[in-house]
Every structure is written in C-alpha cells, then in structure tokens.
Amino acid sequence: MTDYDFIMACCRKYHFTKWNDKELRQCQEVLPSLTREELVRLYRSRWIDEKSPLRKTVLQVLFEGIVGKREERIKGLPTEELAKEFRDKKSGNIALLRKEMRRRFQEHRDRFVIANAFNASIKMDQQWVTSQLRKEESGGGYPRSGRASYAYR
After folding, report:
1. Contacts 24+ apart (CB under 8 A), 131-135
2. CA neighbor of 85 nearest in space, from 65, 66, 113, 109
3. CB-based contact 120:112 (threshold 8 Å)
C-alpha cells in the first residue's frame, strides 16, 4: 500500500466520524513525500471536506513556498509604491495593502502619502483616516505629529 493509498483509506474511514489523533499525525507526516499531483487529488477528493483537519495540512504542503511571500513583499515596499499599488484595484492585494498602510499610518510613517491614498479610495478608507485624525486631535489616540491635518480632498 502506497502512502497515497494509506491516506485515502484513512480519509474514507474518518469522513463521517472524528479523526483518530494517531492516524491523523501519521497522515500529516506522510504528506510531504507525496507528489504534487497526489496532493491535488487529495485536496479535491470528496472524502476530505472543508472541515477536515487534514485539508489545511494538504494546502500548506501544496503551497509551502508561496505562503507568506506576498506579505513579506508588501512589508518590504516603500510607502509610495504601496500607495500606488493600493490605487490599482486590479492588483489583488488590496486587503493586505490596506492593513500594512494602516499599520504604517499608526506608526507615523509617511502619513501624508497614506492619507492621500485612502482619501482617493472608497468611503470606508476615507472615514478611517478621518477617525484617526479626530482621535489624534482630541488627544485620545496618538501623539500630535505637528501637522494639522493630512486629509486633503
């Protein structure tokens, strides 16, 4: 019996019941030795549903080299390039870019550039910048940075 057959047998066995921890660990340890084709077949198998603890592990093994690289690239970009990519709504990374820009804004890094990018975006982003500036002006959130307002419209 190959590793793939062993995992499929376990998946069939535990499809309707709770996984045995020992066999789950055995399956997870064997996953890296499978070929990419076998991993894809496992991931798409009807015996591994979305709630299966093995499915997440299969996904991690499949995309081991890719997971986390987008976040690292975005964190390494200068703020001007972040804002430029944020304005390009076809980049596919809008949520990650928004999160990184909010973090930088709160750390008082390139606030003017970030505020302009958010003000040119959707209403939610505009309101977020406005609320952050109000917090700062009232003394409730952040120390004053010297500029009266970053919100240019």
Report:
1. 132/105, 132/106
2. 113
3. no
What's the CA dihedral at 141, 102, 67, 57 to 10 degrees? 40
Confidence band, pLDDT 50/70/90 cuts, at residue 78: very high
pLDDT 10s digits, 86-121: 998 887 789 999 999 999 999 998 999 999 999 999
C-alpha to C-alpha distance for 78 and 38, rounded to whole angstroms: 40
Give me the residue spans of the domains in the chain.
3-62, 69-138
For residue 54, which of 88, 82, 83, 18 has the smallest C-alpha distance?
18
Whole-number pLDDT of residue 153? 47
